[in-house]
Amino acid sequence: MEINEPNPTRIQRFARVLTIAGSDSGGCAGMQADLKTFAALRTHGMCAVTAITAQDTLTVHASFTLPKELVAQQIQVVASDIGVDAAKTGMLPSAEIIGCVADQLRLLQLKRLVVDPVMITSGGNRLIESDAVAPLVTELFPIAAVVTPNVHEAEVLVERKLVTEADFKLAAEEIQRMGPKSVVIKGGHSEDPDHSVDIFFDGSEFHRLEGKRIRTANTHGGGCTYAAAIAAYLARGFSRLESVYKAKDYVQKAIEHSFPLGKGSGPLGHFFDLGE
Q1: How far apart are CA 181 and CA 126, in angstroms?
Q2: Strand, coil or helix: what is 82?
Q3: Are 102 and 110 in contact (CB under 8 A)?
Q4: How high is the pLDDT of residue 5?
Q5: Cα–chain-centroid distance for residue 201?
Q6: Which side of the chain, N or C, has fewer Cβ within a 10 Å radius?
Q7: Do the bridges between strand 182-185 and strand 86-89 make them parallel or antiparallel, or are there none, so unpaired?
Q8: Nearest to 236 by CA among 179, 188, 191, 274
Q9: What is the pLDDT of residues 203-215, one digit of tens each?
């Protein structure tokens, strides 16, 4: 059988997106959710694993942090061979890992970096050492295009309770002054029973992103998916504001298509028909 060589003029280069995050053995959150999101949004996903978790739909049972040298090498080899158009950080469990990742990203001079300051799971499991919050802010926020804390993470960063949208706006301003170009505070964990309202601040203007709250327990990996979608759209050339709006729409539909799995919170439906 004759095999024809591909025609280079017909090959469309996929945008290349790197996730630097922990592995979820249940496949709902973390690196696995990121890679599914990258694929669904028609980008090429790569990964640098920072930690391995024994995790299911109920909880994180155990976690092991990889050596910083191996984390650094994962970033180095994919960047040198494949290239990176955008990156997203998730679970960075220690100050040592954060410093290592920041060093590698500064070497890449990456302009499209999304930092998801993962600290505590929705089930209450701590995913970052207490002494790692400060270096997360000082090392990674200044090189980030977008930082994506949820309400609880934003409360840790600004050291106060956030209840109203006015609180969210003040917190977004304060976090943006920590170094990132823009901030989106994800409202999925807010107390509003009917709507999920996110606040995006680009350093000068606020944008309110409202979505209908979906009545489902199957939202495991929603925050990871949101940040990963922003990174994917940035890699495809959209602006920060466009990327956040499109990511909000994607994660809303993925939650609408979520499904039960296991005995706890199931995953999002990443591969619904996007109509693109």
Answers
A1: 27
A2: coil
A3: no
A4: 46
A5: 17
A6: N
A7: unpaired
A8: 274
A9: 999 999 998 888 8
